[in-house]
Amino acid sequence: MCSSSQQTSDAKRRGLAVVLAAALLVCAIVRPVRAQLFEPLPPNLPEMATDRDAFTPATTSVVPGLSILEASYSYIDNREQPDVNSFPEALLRYGLSERVELRIGWNYEAGGGGNVVTANESSEGLLDGSISYESHAMYGVKVDLTEQSGWMPRSAAILEGFTPTSGPEPASQPVCTVVAGWELPKQWRFDYALRYAMGNERKDAYNRWGPSAILRMHLSDEWHAHLEWFGVFSEGFFEDTSRAFISPGVHYNFSPNFEVGLRMGWGVSPDAANYFVNWGFGWRY
Q1: What superfamily does domain 4-284 belong to in CATH?
Q2: Structural element, H or E, at residue 30
């Protein structure tokens, strides 16, 4: 049993993390307004690519000196567990150099455990039919690895940590993602990724693998669509699960620096949720 002093220390740690995350989000929201009004972006920027648009992240990092603020809301209709509401799935990405970006974010989830459908969700949660309320801060880096050249794909790696700020989560979790892909004719792209997370539920450490593949379709300068397969598979858990989804999506560019998007998905394995819906935005400044 934890002592009162340890509980107080944990509460202070989580409270500080919440305050820091909130402060960063406020700064992220205020700065874009100032940037749009007083600091026009440089011309001829590469096309903005958000990581929230799909389970598979983009293969590129943020332009040096610029930021991308991403946020979204997810509703997950579980089969046997209570449904999940996840928001704001906030992620702030800052271009540190030509190949490196810094990342920090925060999210809150309420509902049953069992399904991870975005990169901002950290764990599967409890599978006992109860409703849990939890939040976590996320921090890490993204590094561009290779550029496309012939059969060599464009690729990147993401190293992140997830630290609980409230709820039953017992410890921080490391997450690593490698993504690669090719640009195809008509500005279409095919990307694939592998996500690894070290889970810790009920003091039981286990591995969680998240492979994915996506076809991104450029329909016009404003409209983009995709079709994705992804799954989350646990290994060494007290009850291993296989959760796979088919997920189409679309996003609309109001400008080269602001997009809104909608994605849906249906479970195609017995352990997966019936379906999920996710919508959100990305803002470069």
Answers
A1: monomeric porin ompg (2.40.160.40)
A2: helix 4-38
